[in-house]
């Protein structure tokens, strides 16, 4: 009599059902049926630095069909957290809890990375839901009584993000060297936790973004001023050190625009804010250092920014970078919800990957829903299959 075994994932730390092929992978049609049309771009595998991702849908849930998950905003030093309760990787005791998450994702044959960050002048602030409870006009700064560190907030210059935010101290050479060492030390912990890739956070007004923008960096030394090479010097120093310490895929998230009033560069040639033209140069420099993917977001550095939000409102930034640097893999983000449009961004060469956040919180099985709408059969997790048959 044949045995029917509920096969476990080999080598996993506890029982997980084995999915073959892995969740979110395309299932070819039976030979007896008519062949499918060309596989939609969203579900074509992608290889980065020798690592294969099963589709082009990133940032999601391990059992729900995405190719990659990224644990976001993980501070490399305590004072680099955005809010007091944020995740960090500045001490060895933080390795094991993360390794358990990594092991679970690997048991689902899903790649998982981590976003290493320093909040810079936007550190020591309330969590978003705490701020909403505080009400409109309340200070964003988390005081010492609220577990904050408002007197130890650092930035490129002593320029606050807004009146309700902490007043940063301009970083010294010693401060910058400490941050570089902290990123490298965090990478060593990433190795022990088993992460597949690392993303460095250089967007949304946090430390590395605040260095490259003339709105937040008004230094008059080799790390500031009008020359672009000065403003990118410290971020590139961090990126180079991280590249040297990490041999797996390395990504960088950037903001491609500050969304401030006026042009990126005025008639006199003065850079007035951060924008796409500087982003092209910055991304090219990162590619030369060995960065494997640039994740293109925008905003977060100018409190008065005005953005017209709509589906794919940041895709044109990704497209511009892809045209300027065709051999550099590009990820696009920003209110991406519709599978047909998401697929079109990749099909048309505007980006190589779509990264989703809020939509996957609303619809965790978005990858499987997208497959249905695009007419391609993909594997659902064993325990969810009867919901998709």
Structure write-up:
By secondary structure, the chain is of the alpha/beta class. Helix 1 (95-107) links the parallel strand 4 and strand 5 (111-117). The strands form three sheets. An eight-stranded parallel β-sheet has the order 3-12-11-10-9-8-5-4. Strands 1-2 form a two-stranded antiparallel sheet. Strands 6-7 form a two-stranded parallel ribbon. The protein starts with 45 loop residues before the first strand and ends in a 15-residue tail after the last helix. The chain is built from eleven helices and twelve strands.
Strand content: 5-15%
- Provide the residue-averaged pLDDT: 94
State the end-to-end CA separation. 28 Å
Low-pLDDT stretches: none
Structural class: alpha/beta
Number of E strands: 12
Q: Rg to the nearest angstrom?
A: 22 Å
Largest beta sheet, briefly?
Answer: 8 strands, parallel
Determine the fraction of residues in helical runs and give it as a percent range.
Answer: 25-40%
Strand order of the largest sheet: 3-12-11-10-9-8-5-4
Give the overall silhouette: globular
Number of helices: 11
Order of helices and strands: EEEEHEHEEHEHHHEHEHEHEHH
């Amino acid at each position: 009599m044949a045995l029917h075994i509920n096969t476990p994932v080999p080598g996993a730390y506890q029982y997980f059902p084995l999915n073959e092929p892995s969740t979110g992978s395309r299932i070819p049609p039976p030979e007896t049926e008519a062949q499918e049309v060309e596989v939609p771009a969203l579900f074509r595998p992608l290889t980065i630095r020798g690592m294969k991702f099963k589709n082009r849908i990133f940032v999601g849930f391990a059992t729900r069909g995405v190719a990659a998950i990224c644990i976001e905003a993980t501070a490399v030093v305590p004072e680099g957290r955005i809010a007091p309760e944020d995740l960090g990787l500045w001490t060895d005791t933080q390795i094991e809890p993360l390794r358990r998450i990594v092991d679970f994702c690997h048991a689902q044959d899903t790649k998982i990375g981590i976003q290493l960050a320093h909040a810079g002048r936007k550190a020591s602030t309330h969590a978003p839901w705490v701020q909403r409870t505080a009400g409109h006009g309340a200070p964003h700064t988390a005081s010492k009584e609220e577990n904050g560190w408002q007197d130890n907030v650092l930035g490129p210059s002593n320029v606050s993000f807004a009146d309700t935010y902490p007043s940063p101290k301009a970083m010294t050479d010693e401060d910058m060297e400490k941050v570089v060492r902290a990123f490298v030390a965090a990478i060593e912990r990433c190795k022990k936790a088993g992460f597949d890739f690392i993303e460095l956070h250089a967007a949304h007004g946090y430390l590395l973004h605040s260095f490259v923008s003339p709105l937040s960096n008004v230094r008059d030394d080799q790390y500031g001023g009008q020359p672009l090479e000065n403003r990118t010097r410290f971020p590139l120093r961090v990126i180079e050190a991280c590249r040297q310490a990490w041999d797996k895929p390395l990504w960088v998230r950037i903001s491609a625009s500050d969304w401030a009033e006026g042009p990126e560069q005025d008639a006199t040639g003065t850079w007035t804010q951060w924008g796409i033209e500087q982003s092209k140069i910055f991304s090219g420099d990162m590619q030369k250092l060995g960065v494997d993917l640039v994740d293109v977001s925008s905003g977060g550095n100018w409190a008065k920014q005005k953005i017209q939000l709509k589906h794919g409102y940041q895709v044109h930034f990704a497209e511009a970078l892809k045209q300027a640097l065709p051999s550099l893999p590009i990820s696009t983000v920003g209110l991406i919800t519709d599978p047909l449009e998401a697929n079109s961004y990749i099909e048309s060469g505007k980006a190589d990957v779509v990264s989703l956040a809020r939509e996957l919180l609303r619809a965790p099985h978005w990858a499987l829903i997208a497959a249905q709408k695009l007419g391609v059969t993909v594997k659902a997790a064993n325990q969810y299959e009867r919901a998709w048959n």
